Fold:
Amino acid sequence: MEFEHNEKIWDELHEISTGQVPNGFEKLEEMFENGLIDYADYEDAKKTLSNLFL
Structure:
């Protein structure tokens, strides 16, 4: 069950960082604040998402 939960989080993180989720920056912050992702993953996803809009 833990594996399925982690897989879901990583799938959602991938969707956010590739621009597939509306309000991606807000969703990333929410995931970080809820402890679903750590700071390094949060920063990496933010950087990837930011690069989509350059």
In short: The chain has a mean pLDDT of 88.
